[in-house]
Design goal:
This protein is of the alpha+beta class. It folds into 3 domains: 102 residues, SH3 Domains (SH3 type barrels), CATH 2.30.30; 68 residues, SH3 Domains (SH3 type barrels, Roll), CATH 2.30.30.40; 148 residues, endopeptidase domain like (from Nostoc punctiforme) (endopeptidase fold (from Nostoc punctiforme)), CATH 3.90.1720. It is built from 9 helices and 24 strands. Strand 19 and strand 20 form a beta hairpin.
Length: 332
């Protein structure tokens, strides 16, 4: 099953999250919209899963990475209801998030940090590859930089634990952010790093990605935050006319697939256009398909159900659903 956006969830996100995103995701607006008290938090495990209700049996909604800033909207029986930087709301056990007062949160954001730049590695208790493991970390995780020790960064997790991270697997966050160039070529290159990775419903990390989690992650690692689900991403960006074929597509455009119901598009899948009639997407695995009937990798099923295309790159920081990390209020 491919991830788009269920009807109930679609209505909810349109009425709440889209509104909040358009208001720059200010926590005061979020609190007013939900009539709750909002506090601050930082994801404290390498990857945490968020459910649509405060229960392990509930449908999985999304994931967040270590060091990601969030807002805590509600608490219930050991669970936090979070709002992620893209305005997505869902629940996670409270041991996956470090709750912070506003002053502590601002201090975390202002402190020097490092970001993991390799697929997967371990934080160690000492600056040695044979030292005890403190935590796993994945590509995109962010931890506080407490200094250097030879070939290692000394880092602090959001929980306050200290550990060591090899320098060859990370870089200072400010340098990383300054180096982001969200060009079509860079985004496509990032996307191709995940070829062969498994489809995973709700996933937005190297531990597995769904279709919109894959496009979201490919942009995020180039410094841009997209909305969470395919149906939401399909409402952002610049319209690309594909009514008479695919000649207007450019590298880095997003393609949206699904069906029409009562004359309306029902988006259930998204892919990244990579040129020459090909697209890369997460469906079963992350792989490349083609829109061309004569191609060896022609994807007839998806080509027949393509609904629309959107140009994202031209609308960074112009569209409320396409925001650079540099300008996002959660990271200030």
């Amino acid at each position: 099953m491919e991830r788009g956006c269920g009807e109930i969830k679609f209505i909810f996100m349109n009425k709440l999250s889209s509104f909040i995103i358009s208001c720059c995701l200010l926590c005061s607006v979020a609190a007013a919209a939900q009539n709750v008290n909002t506090t601050y938090g930082i994801t404290s495990q390498s990857v945490i899963n968020l459910q649509l209700a405060p229960s392990y049996a509930a449908e999985m909604g999304t994931q967040t990475l270590m060091g990601m800033p969030v807002r805590i909207l509600e608490t219930a029986h050991g669970w936090y209801k979070l709002m992620t930087p893209e305005g997505y709301t869902s629940w996670t056990p409270d041991d996956g998030v470090k709750q912070m007062a506003e002053s502590e949160f601002k201090a975390w954001n202002a402190a020097p940090k490092v970001i993991v730049t390799d697929y997967f590695t371990m934080l160690r208790a000492q600056p040695s590859e044979t030292a005890a493991v403190v935590s796993d970390v994945v590509w995109g995780d962010i931890v506080r930089n407490m200094g250097e020790n030879g070939d290692y960064y000394k880092v602090m997790l959001p929980t306050g634990k200290t550990a060591f991270l090899h320098k060859k697997l990370a870089m200072p966050f400010d340098q990383w952010l300054a180096s982001r160039r969200p060009t079509a070529e860079n985004i496509i290159a990032t996307a191709k790093h995940f070829l062969g990775f498994p489809y995973f419903w709700g996933g937005t990390s190297v531990k597995g990605m769904d279709c919109s989690g894959f496009t979201k992650t490919s942009f995020y690692l180039n410094g841009v935050i997209l909305r969470r689900d395919a149906s939401q991403q399909a409402q952002t960006g610049e319209v690309v006319d594909i009514s008479n074929g695919f000649d207007n597509l450019r590298l880095g455009d997003l393609l949206f697939f699904g069906s029409k119901r009562e004359g309306k598009d029902h988006v259930t899948h998204v892919a990244l256009y990579i040129g020459n009639g090909e697209f890369i997407h997460s469906s079963g695995t992350i792989h490349i398909g083609s829109l061309k009937p004569g191609a060896a990798n022609y994807d007839a099923g998806n080509t027949k159900r393509i609904l629309r295309a959107r140009r994202i790159i031209t609308q960074i920081d112009k569209d409320s659903g396409i925001v650079s990390i540099k300008k996002h209020p959660y990271y200030q």
